[in-house]
Structure formats: structure tokens, C-alpha cells
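Late entry, inosinic acid complex.
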Amino acid sequence: MSGSRRHTCVFGLGWGDEGKGKVVDLLCPAFDLVVRFNGGANAGHTVCVGADRFALHLLPTGVLHEHVTAVIGPGVVVDPSTLVAELDALSARGVDAAPRLRISDRAHLVLAYHKIEDQLSERAAGPEGKIGTTSRGIGPCYADKMRRTTAVRFADLVGEAGLEERIRKLVGSRKSFLNAAYGGDGGLDADAVLTEIQSARRRLGSNICDTTALLHGAMAKGDRILFEGANGVLLDVDHGTYPFVTSSSTGPHGIGPGAGVPDSLVTCRVGTAKAYSTRVGSGPFVTELDNEIGERIRQRGREFGTTTGRPRRCGWFDAVACRYSATVSGATDLALMHLDTLSGFDEIGVCTAYRCDGRILHTPPAAADALARTEPVIELLPGWGEDLGGVRFFEDLPADARSYLARLESLVGVPITMIGVGPDRTQTILRGGMSAALGQPGRSRPVQVSK
Ligand code: IMP
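Prediction complete; structure with ligand written out below:
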């Protein structure tokens, strides 16, 4: 991989589920370490290798590659039981990931009371007010992190004397809070929390280290690092469709706080998006197609959540939102996935601008109610009938598919250097800088992968 692409970030430009797992998996042979820097078990990365389908939530996708050291950075909130279950599930399928996993001693633990609070607060908010979270305890855990006095970090597992006493106190005060706020504590039990912590110490203790020092040491000796974003920029706590967002920094700007590496060192920033839009959970979705076209996209694209199994809301590609997230995150490359899903439509819509309260907008409004009133300005482009699953060269795509890509590229302002035409690793077309970076200069070529 060329110098300018040495440290790379793959991240979502939408509301998550853009196919990041597959892109990371594809790039892995060129990297030594793969790092998660944000989010927690709310993420869901599906990777298909031949007939095997792996769904990962907390582990970096890189663990599927034997040469990769997988790192969970300080900015990730880790549910230890989910992590152990994921390691065990991989081990049962012959992937021994534990020896190559490093967990930051600065990372925070998601414990039972975070998940209980997540569920109870969503239930209390009701269908209109709820965020539609993944119920994985993400928001309450990040809230504890910011509150500082009520957080538990991996460093506490290996060092802190008196942890048991502190946990008992924490659980006691959390029970009082839950009872007062929601009229119940969801069966929260201090002994169960302590058992979970002891099990995490036993199973994960040897994986805990100062990952910040590890990464800087690796960079000093010339190792290449791939940063794997979770969720997507439109779910970013600062830049997303607030308040219908997650609780972390989901783009490359999250690498500084979330991994302890200056994001200025990460010069290749691959933003992933689908050839259409999807969203799970609540919140405004300007291009949503709540009709048979949306249903057709959902079925063809198998648009059901990896983490929760929820049907995803589907709509046309939103170039306004995508240009905004590409700008905020400094995307250098666009990986456009699921192009094959759009085969068979006579016409394909693209949102080129927003119309809100009689005004034309070219960036999303900040207020959720304004975004909810916003309508898409749709441009219709000719579709194509051909199945794209077997196409490996850009030049072999139907002319209308190439025109579609060219239009998206000019609207978003970022070159499309990867195109997904099916779920398997090999069903990917590389272009331009990306094919050169992966050692395939010249005409775009079929992807070579190592299992
Ligand atoms: P939380 O991250 O579980 O708090 O959920 C907040 C919002 O982000 C909800 O709308 C979730 O559905 C959404 N969300 C969080 N992570 C992902 C993801 O990886 N893919 C899709 N949606 C996500």
C-alpha cells in the first residue's frame, strides 16, 4: 500500500449498515493492525467469506485475518459478556481471535444497568419520543463516562482495590434512580454484575493493555493501521441527525479521542455508502420510500439489521446528506456498496437538494423537526436490467450503471474507488487510486483475497 494510504479509516457516511465490514475485510491484507475507536455492541458488521457468514458486533472485522492484531481503543464502550460470546462463537468456527486481541485499559465497560436503563428509558419515551436505540446500553454507558464518577474502565479490572465495594454502591444508587425514574429496576442485581465483572477479568484480563502506547510503537516501526469506524456519520453525536444519533464520534474525527492517534496521520479516509439509503431506528429520513419501491429495495438488499434484526427503512440515495457527511469527515474515497441491489428498476431516484418551508437547501438543517418537514428534490436516472453479481471490471458495468455512478460522484464530490456488486469479498470492483493501492494498477481488476 502506498505511503499516502498507510494509515486508513473506513467509516460509514450514512446511518450505519453501509457495508463497512466488507470493505475493512477486503483491505485487511494490506494492514498489520485493525482498530475500533468508537461505539460498542450497537455496531453490526456482516462479512461473507465463501459460504461462511460472520456477524461481528464488538470485535474489529480484522480478527478474521490471522496476521492482524485487533485493537479495541479507549473510545469504545465494551459489553464484556458480548465480547466473550463473540470470541467463543468465532473459536467454535475455527477462528482463534483471543491471542490477537488487545483491549484498551482506558475503555469503558457496558454493564447490566446500562442495558436496563437503555430499555426502560426507551419504553418510557413511547413510540413518538424514543430514539429507537439498539438497547445495547450505549447511551447510558457514555453518559457515565462523561459523568466521570460513576464509570468503570478496564483499568479498574486489573488494578483497582475496593472495586467490589464501589460496584455495590454504584448498583445501589442505580437501582434507586431506575425505580424513581421508571418505576422499576429491571431486576438489577449487584451479585450478577460482580459475577460478570469477575468473568470479564478472568476471560479478558490478559488482553487488557495500554493500546495507545501499542499503536504509537507500531507506527514507529512502520506498521500500517486500519481504523474501523462503527455506526455512521449521520449518527455522529455532534454532526448527525440529533437527537436521533448514537453517543460517539463516528467518523475519522473520532480517532484522536477514541484511539489516541492524531487523525491527521490518517490520510486515506474511505467513506462507505450504499447505492441507495437505509436507516434503522427513529428519526427523520428525507428520501424514505414507505411504499413498494422501498419494500423491493429491502427484499433485494436483505435490509434487516445485523444487531437487532429490525427491518431497515429504505429510500433513494441522498446526495445532500452524503455530501455533508463526506465534507465533515474529509472523505478521500467513496466505497459505494450494493449497486447490484438496484438492478431491475426502470428509473432510479437521487436526491439532489432539499426543500424545506419553501426554501431549497443544500445541507441538512440542524433541527429534527425541520428535517422531518423536509422533502427531497428527486432527479430520476435511467435504470438497468442486468444482474451485476458477476461483474469485476468497471468497464463491464452497463452504461446506465456507469452514468449513475458518475452522477453520484459529481454530486458528492468524492471519487468512487470501490463498488460492491454482491455480498462476497470478491464481488467488488476497484478503481483508480484504490486498485493501485491494493497492488492492482492499471485497468481495474478482480479482487484477489486471502482467506
Ligand atoms: P444506540 O447507538 O444503540 O444508542 O442507538 C442510537 C441510534 O443509532 C438508533 O437509531 C440505532 O438504531 C442507531 N444505530 C446505532 N448503531 C447503529 C449501527 O451500527 N447501524 C445502524 N444503526 C445504528
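Residues 116 and 324 are 35 Å apart (CA to CA). Will revisit in the morning.
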